[in-house]
Here is the input.
Amino acid sequence: MTLYSTADCAHMGRALQLAARGTYTAHPNPMVGCVLVRDGNVVGEGWHEKAGEAHAEINALQAAGDMASGATAYVTLEPCAHTGKTPPCADALVDAGVSKVIVAMQDPFDRVAGRGVAQLREAGIATEVGLMQAAAESLNEGFVSRITRGRPCVRLKIAASLDGAIAMSSGESQWITGPEARHDVQKLRARSGAVMTGIGTVLADDPSLNVRAPELDTGGVQPLRVVLDSRLRMPGTAGMLTHPGATLVCCTGNQDATALEGAGAEVREFGAHGAVVNVFEVLAVLGEREINDVLVEAGPHLAGYLLEKDLVDELVIYQSPHIMGSNTRGMFSTPNWSTLADRRTLEIKDVRRVGTDTRITASIRN
Amino acid sequence: MTLYSTADCAHMGRALQLAARGTYTAHPNPMVGCVLVRDGNVVGEGWHEKAGEAHAEINALQAAGDMASGATAYVTLEPCAHTGKTPPCADALVDAGVSKVIVAMQDPFDRVAGRGVAQLREAGIATEVGLMQAAAESLNEGFVSRITRGRPCVRLKIAASLDGAIAMSSGESQWITGPEARHDVQKLRARSGAVMTGIGTVLADDPSLNVRAPELDTGGVQPLRVVLDSRLRMPGTAGMLTHPGATLVCCTGNQDATALEGAGAEVREFGAHGAVVNVFEVLAVLGEREINDVLVEAGPHLAGYLLEKDLVDELVIYQSPHIMGSNTRGMFSTPNWSTLADRRTLEIKDVRRVGTDTRITASIRN
Here is the structure.
């Protein structure tokens, strides 16, 4: 095992920070950051901003100029060895005379994993892999999911009271959480390639599911809106169809899509799982469409279904400081769970105050 | 408004710390701490350990001996001016030649409030009131409640999953929270003069409701166990009747108490509120019995009833990192709440990890 110095950790930490600047713009590409250090001084920094534009390493090399020669490069993801939309970064690092490369994580794509590192080593550059690997993997969880599992990372967002209610029995629910929490959801949308909901939510709330906070710069891109609507009940007058960005409505069987298509939606047929759309198929299609992260904003039926099928990778709960009592709707509908053994155990990753609400971020322990 | 120095705050903070040493033993008396400072040096510390034993001021004066002369006394509660089980502390401070007294809060009992301070001032001692008053009042919330409202502070403890479930629909619930949370509940019991539950919980779980953690030294005193049991369904074989300490069973109407009384319980008749015991009356009786704090460990019916009647002063929720789904029982049964306007808003006072669970302490904002 390689031993890294405190300086190594600080530089890679900085590279991860730089990578995160691409949170709202880099996808479907991974977020990548690069720091070039010579004689203990940072001589160049770069990150990948947008697909089709320069990779992090190239930006850092450009910033460093002649100072790149003899420098150590800290890169959060293995440099590419192939020509995609841009020439290979491994070549560029070699050409610039970098003397050492430290990589946080390998390329997750099996067929290219290790190629960039091998190429660097063949060129005589000392190359290490694995510094702050967990943080790098977590940063690009969605990209890694798409590449290795063929489906996006599924992030389920729920707003509920402290006693677990998302609405009164009557449906009354606006607003359970405060404006700060609702603004925070804008950030979740902005980092996602798609926002998914169920037809029940569309019919009840007519949500727009778009990014509208002016300071969140996604380069004009809106997440794909995905509606699970097995019997195609969504009206052509749904509000989301009037906003910039595309809407995919997923139905089953033979349905008349004329009205929806006329209103600008894409309607696609999927297999059925009982009465509902086969979500596994939908997620596979989203993976094919290079969507790394799906944010699910849905009611208890879809939320419970995804949880039962172990399809939730991350749960983001905005918990308001209220007790709503028993004439309410719960967070998850799980008709098949009858004993404590059916429950799911969470790994709490982060808890923080957002306005007067508490945001709990957790993964499901399987 | 008096301006206090940083040193004043530090000394009063220390006095509050000392006061809290009486958490498990001082009740029904208030917790009180006292620090004596001369020429910037602490020359004596004391706290009130147990009713009938010396007050905080006397303990501090004893520790200081001759050094008390000319010292400043920091006391968390106004020194008493009357002879109770022990002689008045105001006299003792005067006799010891203390030159200044700083008090955190007045005595809450209207008829004596200000008397101790007046007596000190008459004796020529500079006396100030109000330093860290909110902290002092919070420390003795139960005592203040009993003295000013004639009823104890009601602390409601609930163990629930992150989605607000306290049990499966079948009743299966052992254990939702972990051993650390259950141990923490022992501390809540130890600081309470009474632990209250409903007959439903007794019949379902047969709880002991006692303090059994060996390191919690209550001086051998167990909180009074209180069972709300309108129709006197509690069996004489209930486990709690076999443990040291007293049990009060509260019923309505004319019931045959022979078996329960034979098993050692005290049975008392109260007025009825519909089908349930009038909790207001029960709390008034507990106040008469000098109980400062009642811990309620109950199911959703009693919890919801207390919440509806605005009788909950503090809510302590142990939230386990689980999703239990929809075939479950919720934290509160509130049959009369139908709109969002009925919900209660919480003031979150403290959130911390207890083992793998999260403990949320809140008051109800009225």
